[in-house]
# Entry
Amino acid sequence: MLTDDVRLRVRDICRQVCRENAVDILRGVLSSDHVHMFLSVPPKLAISDLVRKMNGRSSHKVQREFPALRRRCWGRRFWGRGYFSTTNGAISEDIVLQYLENHIADPTDASR
# Structure
């Protein structure tokens, strides 16, 4: 569902939520069905709260702004229920950035 204008709008909303919460986006990749983000999060902010804010706001706004999407998602969730989070203490930042670069199988399928 993350295609064209919807993908760009989700990216803008995630950037806005991060900015409001003093979170630095070091790298991000939006594929057609999921998002990868490498973030620098202040210790006072719980990752679960950040994800909840990004998912909630982006879901609400894109369904309001794209009526066809709202009809398509009616009765279902826009985002999946789960998410994965880890720290990069055990691996270097270079490895994480390399993973994100290699994650893009098709350059036309991702928005950074």
